[in-house]
Design goal:
Largest sheet: 5 strands, parallel
Radius of gyration: 25 Å
CATH class of the largest domain: Mainly Beta
Number of domains: 3
Mean pLDDT: 92
Strand content: 15-25%
Distance between the termini: 12 Å
Shape: globular
Number of strands: 19
CATH topology of the largest domain: OB fold (Dihydrolipoamide Acetyltransferase, E2P)
Structural class: alpha/beta
Low-confidence stretches: 1-11
Strand order of the largest sheet: 4-3-5-6-7
Number of helices: 19
Amino acid sequence: MFPRCDRMPFMDTYSITPDIPDDVNKELSAYPELTRRLLFNRGISTAAEAEIFLNPDYEKGLSDPFLMHNMEKAVERVLRAIKEEEKIVIYGDYDCDGIPGGVVLHDFFKKIGYAHFENYIPHRHTEGYGLNIAAVEKLARSGAKVMITVDCGITDCAEVARGNELGIDTIITDHHLVQEEVPPAYAVIDAKQEEDTSPDPMLCGAGVAFKFVRALLARGDFDVSDGWEKWLLDMAGLSTIADMVPLQKENRVIAYYGLKVLRKSPRPGLQKLLRLMKMNQAYISEGDVGFMIAPRINAASRMSDPREAFELLSTDDEVIAGDLAAHLEKINSERKWIVAQMVKEIKKTLKEREPRDVIVIGNPNWRVGVLGIAASNIVEEYGKPAFVWGKEGSEHIKGSCRSDGTVNVVELMTNVQEDLFLDVGGHEHSGGFSILHDKIHLLEEEVIDAYHKRKKDHVERVTLVDKKMDIGEVNWKTYREIEKLAPFGIGNLSPTFLFENVVIRGVNYFGKEKNHLRIDMENGTAKPVSGITFFANKANFQRKSFAVGDRVGIVGTFDKSMFRNYPELRLRIIDIL
């Protein structure tokens, strides 16, 4: 174990994973030693499991969509609507799960030549998350008879009931937790229902939409070639990676093939956006999806209108695609600037305050759509839970909160005085809330009081290191072995390695603000190995200072850069010991 004792309340340690048992080593003997170790570290101990994991199979890896509860009933209703030419509305969430999921269904109806449908995406600031009664009533007046939700709806009981009164049959396709009260929808498709018999309850919203399309194609009599739906995997894969669901089981299959389709996708909007980002489509990786593509899709709802991202991904018009790509690139840059200014203002304010155990800060002028990003920045900078609020464009004050690991923010918000919040939501590490303006002055004391009752006195964060490795092993041969386990993400983290007694040959801070770090390391050849970390001003390395000639320990992952279409192998530094 390699402890980090410099920061409390955390105790960070690095632990080398145990050796592979002899029987597992024998079972996986067809693979190189590194591959065997990486498989074992991910719970794979048989040759059959290894084959499934290393070679995802589209046909075998995706289960029958009709194993999902209510799928047959939902398909029957949509096919009846198509036959009777009823208006169908696809009601999708405004993020990088709901929007691509809405595109999946849009492309299906377009492919079969059905014209009586529309996509509806609520505005983040004026309508909020999920269904809303005003939208349901508006859609009913437009003649909608069937409403299919994507990535939302599982908690919208009143809104679905109102739709029933107005003659709309609602089909909920969602992946969020099912609450005690289930909406009175015509059919609810959510693998987290107790009655569900599908093998993977962790699909994202677009993944559920993709399974729904597969079911519709299986039961409907459409002039669509076998396998056409695979072209929709660019959207399902995009969401699966961006929504950070576990990349295991069916999600691994969707992400694996989704990346393959993304690299060949003919969508003009995607191609235009990639060109603006100076990215080669043929080399799109899961990292590109998470850090480059998804933020620009999400920028639409944060900074403007979510329909702009939907139209970018669904249009066939090259001119419209180019205009929308340029627009999203522009507002994403504005989003970065706004967050930077917000964080700068927060830091200035906090300098003038007495330190508190929870950071609670806000401004009525702050843009609601970027509060979560600002809260994450504050947690990284100060190592404390953060509640950040704003009001711009909203009826009530809204906020986002992030945990530093010492408290469950949802539990915290539900342990304040009963009528403080209008509503709260989220999960252990990330949440959101709304509150009346005349109660905002109570927020800080209530949250801090609740924190003292709920905090964990000691949190140990253990990073598992897959293997100790010599710096000379950082080469393309090793990378190709590691790459076999991709795509990496939640549930299948990028393999982590420890490199000891590494000699530093160069230290360089780069970027506009000189806040990124590149270290060159001696590896016994004329060309050193490089390691990088972004936002090094926020990095909390165990070793605080280092210079040319120093011997250090490096904890990191392999990273393939395609900057300017030139392949470079380097390390992504997690810690310097």
